[in-house]
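Translate sequence into structure tokens.
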Amino acid sequence: KGLQAPIGVVLVDHGSRKKESNDMLVEFSKLYQKVSKRDIVEVAHMEIATPTIPQAIGLCVSRGARSVVIAPYFLSNGRHIQSDIPAIVEDARTQYPELTIRLAAPMGIDEQIARVIEDRVKTEIHKEE
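Result follows.
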């Protein structure tokens, strides 16, 4: 089944006790929104910090989303991706039966990520000591 517009996107990271780490996801969400040109983008933390995934889904709904894609800001397909986040998403489907909620894959092994890492390596190689 296709997603009904408007579509909300929830960017999810692990969550941290350090405010600056959580603030980094907010900054990334602004960049993502600019690049993607999506109107409804919210952030959530898997644990430790707020907003939680259900809170972020609620924010998307309050902004008019009829569908939501949960986009993990995780590199690998670990425990949170395989079990924790899908369980949270399943609970949210019960809470919002009128909403279509999908879970995107983590970043994983991707050529674009390899390019970003190589850019960082080149920057370090060419730094003045």
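Note: Strands lie at 7-13, 40-45, 67-72, 100-103.
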